[in-house]
User: Fold AB hydrolase-1 domain-containing protein from Neurospora tetraspora.
Amino acid sequence: MATLDGEGLHKPQDIMMSPWAVQRYDEPGGHNLPTTFDIDYQNLSLLLQEAAILYPQCAKPKLYPTTQPYIPVPVTTPVVPVSLRSGSVTVGVVTKDPYSEGNRSGQGPNHTTDYREYDTSSAVPLRQGRHNNKLPLSDACCGTAVNMGSSRQEPSTESLWTGIKPAVLLNGTWTKPRHVNKDGHIFRKLEFEVPLDHHHHHSSQKDALKLHAELVDSFPDPKPTTPDVLSSPISPQKPIILYLCGGPGDGNPSDRVPELNKFCIDRGYQVLYVHYRGTGLSPLFSDSAAKNKVMRMSDQDKANYLAKFRQDNIVRDLEAIRLCLEKELPTKIKWTLLGQSFGGWVATTYLSFLPQSLEAVYISAGMPPLGKTPREVYEKTYSHIVKRNEDYFNEYFPEDQEHVRTIVEHLRGKAPMQKGVDGQPFRGYELYGENGERKGCYLTYQTFMTLGRTFGSAPVVRRDRDMDEEEYERPSLASSIGALTINPSKSSLASSTTHISGTPPLSASYRSSSTSFTSLSSLPDTSLTPEIPLPYQKLHNLITRLISDLNSSKGISSATLTIYTHLESFALHRRPLYALLHEAIYCSSTCPLTRQASNWAATEVALFHPSGGFSWLNTSSSPSSSSTTIPSKRKGDKEKMYFTGETLHPSPTLSSLGGSAIVPFLGAADILARKGDWPALYDLSSLNKNRERGVKVRAVAYQEDMYVDLELSKQAAGMIGGCELVVCPFREWGHGSIKETDKTGRVLGWLFDGFN
Assistant:
């Protein structure tokens, strides 16, 4: 029998899951547990559940009685046959157990394994604070006790995905096309209404949400002359591609990537663009009355409201739209999903729970990190962010490290005093809109240091070790995931990267809209150097302007602040959900290991990163750790100042970036960061069985993607039955390649046809 003490669980090889796992501890005798601890049913269940994850070789499939049968979930997946120029090759798959401790630490043997999916329907929160694999008997991470004797039980995952009703098509928008473009593409506007909560269809009408969508199709005559053609019905014969954009929080305009529309329409599809709930032209509130109602809510109620805007409810909205269109069209509709970045998260959730509604799933730079915690994801993310900072400061602009320190010192100690949302003063420069309106946003030292967000569109510098490795690499199949991996030769790279020799394209390659980054083309820069990546040049020009202003003793000019406003790409004032739900998209009760709160994971990972470049985040609101210390610089060394990427951090950074759009939700944002009972976003058992269902799944991943790590993408692909992952052979191509004019057709070709 295992022994419990204040340090945790010892001798895991001796754990017995039965019989005492289901006994009450007010019964006398029959166990070998210390009498100094008052261990109840809840604590024991939590302890054993985590022990089973850490030490699966000791566990039986069930820890306590449930109503759901045990379903073994094979982690490994056979390879889809991939066509190469030299012929067709089929490879079997063997992968590491992604839930083993050895795999999380990058070690451990390769083996074929079954992952037991334990019941999570009883709402038992998992513990946090595990150190050195010890399982402390402390309070649960959610901070709320669960009465195991209560008859109350959370809905099962299956019940959360049944009973979705068709959306309501509003006001005859069926026959309201927006326009016909020069290519003969018809843009038809559609408006739908869906419930805020799909499980409460009879709630107040004021809680309903409006969804804006646009359907793009072709007309036989590229220059129609009669008004009747604009009112022609939607074709029931053509299949529909549902394009899922990045985010969270972005709008989904139908004319952003014309080449994508042309490619899909030429292949006989119609393309549907839906603005997710609360984004773009689908407002966060149905009307002013609904907005006022939410604004008067407590922080907890606001958090509950915002929690309904993640990808699980986005999928329910899309399913409701599909059901609505089936009512209007005399045909059965199955979506073909095309997801970019966060759109891949949405697509994988759809594939998990409603595969019967799908024909195919194509994903570019958007394989979600299945089975990973937010902290594990951000540890990977920061390795890419640090690499981009090293490129910027070591390879291109080494003088800017000292300039950045000077700017931060000025913003921290000499910028004008401002009144904070909590009444506490802070220093910063207020920013204004194009018409001089106040937005409540500020340039502070924290917001200045977030400007690395656009670094992901810059190619990574090739160092000597990279070139040496490439000499000996050959095109091969990745036997661990069943995906095609190409390691290009120098000649292929030279022939495929001519666009790098000139000014790089302005399309953004981060997980979001490229609108604000594209607008940088209007900045008055005349000294751009073709050999230096454009994002680095834009940032360097801003730093040069700031230093010039500070040397003039007149402070930072309004012209320089305007340049900063264009360069700052979060744009939270018009897409607040990006900030409020960014970490929440990684939180899921998919398996017990991931059932935990984010707790501002990005900030904690940055603070304790061994590079020491993010210590500027160390404010009173930053999280602390009892087991880790912030890296200290050696005596005589100057403090490194590294820019962060797309990660977001708690106020004051959040309030200064988002202004009036974010401030009312700051309390709710902190509650969401501490929320540990998120519903499941994925069903690993269902995903593993996808090959049997016949839904085609193909994805493209990028070698130097700063936002979606390649290794995590490979692991996720291995957990989806029949998934084929194409790793882009060109290191210079990035996260947003599918949206770049000269790359769109190539990426779509890989997705639809495979690599050949």
Q: What stands out?
A: The first strand starts at residue 4 and ends at 5. The two ends are 58 Å apart (CA to CA). The mean pLDDT is 74.
